[in-house]
Design a protein that fits this description.
Length: about 220
């Protein structure tokens, strides 16, 4: 297989030419135009080295359809107990920086470099990137961020500093996606935690079909309230 080196224009090769691990291309930048084109084509940036960005489209792809979300009795008790308060798009920069700071087992550091942080802050200012924020009192104790295009939400990362905070945030995201009529939440790669919540694996070709349908819907752009 051939890994493509991206040109200056914000274009990508076909995802069916990806490497077995999902690597589609290397290079380019993290400009808003290139990032949005990536998501539209089922591709996302996963990390960068000192020189290049690496772009992926995994096969299979983990997604969660909002109507298939499974809430456990314990999580339901936490939510109904109102231990946490959830907001949207009030602390985007704090959320992404908190995600970057979280230690991750088996990983040396984080792919959320300063360049990534600045790129997604730019998308937030343009109304495409959103954050879910979970508070205990006035303290931010969990959250997640991602991109919204059409009827799809592309989850990027989450964090928590208090048990169950990220689960509460994800539940709030699912409820918002239901409210907006979103087709799916893109979870990117498989985890046992997401499987327990009702996520499923799609072959890349099926994911692309779902994505194309979702992108026929108008993007809800701007601050989520």
């Amino acid at each position: 297989m051939t890994v493509y080196l991206l040109p200056e224009e914000p274009i990508f090769p076909p995802v069916d030419e990806a490497e077995p691990d999902g690597l589609v291309a290397i290079g380019g930048d993290l400009s808003p135009d290139r990032l949005l084109q990536a998501y539209v084509h089922g591709i996302f940036p996963w990390f960068r080295d000192e020189e290049d960005v690496y772009w992926y489209s995994p096969d299979p792809r983990m997604v969660l359809f909002p109507e298939q979300f499974r809430i456990s009795d314990s999580l339901n008790r936490i939510i109904t107990g109102k231990r946490f308060k959830v907001k949207f798009d009030t602390k985007f920069e704090q959320v992404i920086r908190s995600c970057a700071a979280v230690p991750r087992p088996g990983q040396d550091g984080t792919w959320i470099s300063p360049d990534f942080i600045n790129a997604y802050i730019a998308l937030h200012k343009l109304g495409f990137a959103h954050s879910v924020e979970v508070f205990s009192g006035e303290e931010l104790v969990g959250g997640l961020y991602g991109i919204s295009l059409g009827a799809a939400f592309f989850g990027e990362s989450m964090f928590y500093s208090m048990n169950n905070a990220s689960k509460v945030g994800f539940h709030a995201l699912v409820e918002r996606c239901r409210e907006y009529g979103f087709r799916f939440i893109d979870c990117q790669t498989e985890t046992s935690h997401l499987l327990r919540l009702g996520a499923t694996l799609l072959e890349r070709k099926d994911y692309i079909l779902q994505l194309e349908e979702a992108l026929t819907k108008e993007t809800i752009r701007g601050i989520w309230r």
